[in-house]
Specification:
495 residues, alpha/beta, Homing Intron 3 (I-Ppo) Encoded Endonuclease, Chain A, Alkaline Phosphatase, subunit A, 3 domains, eight-stranded mixed β-sheet, three-stranded antiparallel β-sheet, 19 strands, disordered N terminus
């Protein structure tokens, strides 16, 4: 059997059965990353996307167009690897907690057995009348009100002692639908009126790692050609030329003097107020794929604001195929329900990984004398993979999609006696910035903009509040609106 292929057992009625061998070991490792394994007797909540009724869902083979499978069924199958599951088989919860994936809380039955268990435990009763209910109707109203104020599913779930999927279902009125809420009704009406007058676009942000402005014409021909279809900013800057602080600035719209981070260690970062949490609270489906922050805590503590949480654990995740994996994840996000916000964190051209094999075989430009041959070869092939990633996203965008491409900082090649980043040198603080989208007037703009302005622009595109954001929206520059004068504000820190 080829790696990644799905093996099935055909029953007499030709219905495929799910078996332990339906998943590769890589699939199983990826599956358990999304399970918060607490104590042996506690519930193990699913931390990724959930179905409407609250059960977790998992795509077995991400390289194929396969349907998602209920996470708790896979958890049972893992513990009972000699068995199989037919579609008619039911895996029920003894804990009555749909996101739970603790095999000790799961048992196999059929539809009749599940109905008997439902009646015996009183699960057919609504709301507080259900003996297993964790929340009260008053708490449900509180949760809906706080979601309208922009609070995240993860934070509310921890406070109220339920899974983030439960919070999402409550906020979207997929559960506790019998609980009336005047403010929710009014907000729904206002949202419907607003969205009919001003549809919200899909938004994709692609951020590279250590990408210099000169790298585009040097080794990214497809993006360079596509730049003519968008707005290219020739004076875009990072607030601090280092990966961690600049990415936090992009996520929060705050300058380093406000968020306080000046190193790559994000310990203490409060992710409850970012562009992701604000867009998510406004109804956007949000996805993070790739590099989020350095040294983040992906495996056990998903960041707030993300419906689909696929950040890298390390810079070398997926090997040389990393840019191709990111491309598949990005295109999958873009094909999802609208409106959606896709945040794609590329590691390229930062080391140590080269680009895909097809890029490693390409001829290499003459290297600067300050760069080693090994480093130059890695960087050029990584830029080739990045070029394909960004170009594929731009070409796949819909008519109502904005794509924003930039970098966390630039890179110094050594002509001034310095290599790397972190310093207040133009090559380090200047970053590429190109925007494609509906009604964008193609141009090269010379106005000064910052990564915190990107944050403000994303929120403006989504018609979401920008209170506390220190940047300003450059939407009018994209549309070549000269009715108001642009006054660029630049604040940069460095070593």
């Amino acid at each position: 059997m080829q790696d990644g292929a799905i093996e099935v057992e055909i029953s007499p009625d030709e219905t495929p059965a799910l078996r332990f061998s339906s998943l590769t070991w890589g699939d199983w490792l990826r599956f358990w990353r999304h399970v918060d394994q607490c104590g042996p007797d506690e519930c193990w909540p699913w931390t990724a996307s959930c179905k409407r009724e609250g059960h977790g869902e998992f795509r077995i083979d991400k390289r194929a167009e396969t349907k998602k499978t209920a996470a708790h069924r896979l958890a049972w199958l893992y513990a009972n690897h000699d068995s199989s599951l037919l579609p008619a088989d039911v895996v029920a919860h003894s804990c009555d907690n749909p996101p739970c994936c603790n095999p000790a809380h799961l048992f196999k039955t059929d539809q009749a057995g599940n109905r008997f268990d439902c009646v015996a435990k009183g699960r057919q009763a609504k709301g507080e009348e259900n003996g297993r209910a964790v929340l009260t109707e008053a708490q449900v109203r509180e949760i809906r009100a706080r979601k309208l104020r922009g609070e995240s599913n993860v934070a509310l779930g921890r406070e109220y002692g339920v899974n983030h999927c439960t919070i999402a279902a409550i906020a979207n009125r997929k559960s506790w639908r019998h609980v009336a809420s005047l403010i929710v009704g009014l907000t729904t009406l206002l949202t419907a009126c607003t969205s009919s007058a001003e549809p919200r676009p899909d938004i994709v942000v692609v951020i590279a790692d250590d990408l210099a402005v000169r790298d585009l014409p040097l080794a990214m021909p497809r993006v360079t050609e596509l730049a003519a279809e968008g707005v290219q900013f020739d004076a875009a800057f990072t607030p601090l030329p280092l990966c961690g602080p600049s990415r936090i600035s992009l996520l929060t719209g705050k300058l380093p003097r406000s968020h306080g981070f000046r190193s790559n260690d994000p310990t203490g970062f409060d992710a409850r107020d970012t562009i992701a949490t604000r867009l998510n609270a406004a109804g956007y489906a949000t996805t993070i794929a790739g590099k989020l922050l350095n040294k983040h805590w992906k495996a056990t503590h998903p960041e707030a604001g993300w419906d689909t949480y696929l950040p890298f654990d390390h810079h070398d995740d997926f090997g040389a195929a990393q840019s191709d994996v990111l491309k598949r994840q990005a295109l999958e996000c873009m094909s999802g329900s609208s409106p959606h916000f896709c945040y794609v964190g590329a590691v390229a051209p930062h080391g140590p990984l080269p680009g895909p094999e097809r890029c490693q075989a390409q001829p290499i430009r003459e290297r600067p004398p300050t760069v080693t041959e090994k480093r130059w070869s890695q960087r050029m092939s990584a830029l080739c993979g990045l070029d394909d990633l960004v170009a594929s996203i731009v070409q796949a965008r819909g008519s109502d999609t904005y794509v924003i491409f930039t970098s966390d900082n630039g890179w110094m090649y050594g002509e001034n006696g310095r290599t790397g980043k972190s310093e207040l040198v133009l090559d380090a603080v200047q970053v590429p910035l190109i925007v494609w989208g509906p009604d964008v007037v193609p141009a090269r703009r010379r106005e000064i903009v910052s990564l915190v302005d990107v944050s403000a622009t994303v929120l403006r595109l989504a018609n979401v509040g920008r209170s506390g954001v220190e940047g300003q929206s450059f939407l009018r520059l994209l549309h070549n609106d000269a009715s108001t004068r642009w006054v660029g504000r630049l604040e940069v820190e460095g070593q």
